[in-house]
Write a structure and sequence with these properties.
The protein is built from four helices and three strands. The protein is α+β, with helices and mostly antiparallel strands.
Length: about 80
Amino acid sequence: MKTIDLSRERIPIEKLLDLARKEPLLLLTGEGEEFLLSGADDFDQEVEALRSSEAFHHFLDERSRSGRRIPLEDIQRELSDRETD
């Protein structure tokens, strides 16, 4: 998996799609959001590739150590608030 920081380089969507045809992309925004771009047709192959990807496991380890967590109760409360609006 290749990581691309979109806050550092502007890449046209066509180029991103070309890159995603070769390998999954982790796209990082300047606002701290993360998006995964991968071909949909080869899902089973991607799962297998990610299982054996040292970079992906490193990414998951970093994410698990991240302090950016939202408690389930907060999410449930927000969903409940949306239903009543």
